[in-house]
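Homework help board

Subject: predicted structure for assignment chain

Our instructor gave us this sequence and asked us to write out the predicted structure in token form, then describe one feature. I got the tokens but I'm not sure how to describe them. Can anyone check?
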Amino acid sequence: MANKYLAAILSFFIPGIGQAYAGDIKKGIIYFLVAFVALGIVGSFFVDSVLDSFYYIIDILISIYAAYDAYLMAK
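My token output:
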């Protein structure tokens, strides 16, 4: 059984790792690809622009949701 707090912490810093730790590797890969890779590529276009803060807000919200989802999965 996975530790729910560790799953949440892992998924907050790297979305998808907590889901994989909790046992759903497929869901973890999807979270990683969407949240970490896609937002990283999109975020590179917002460097030094007005929308830069918008990107960071979206990134934090996705990280929080991924951590919450990993927490629920590991319960």
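Reply (TA_rk): Your tokens look well-formed. For the description, you could write something like this. The chain has one domain: 4-74. That's the kind of observation they're looking for.
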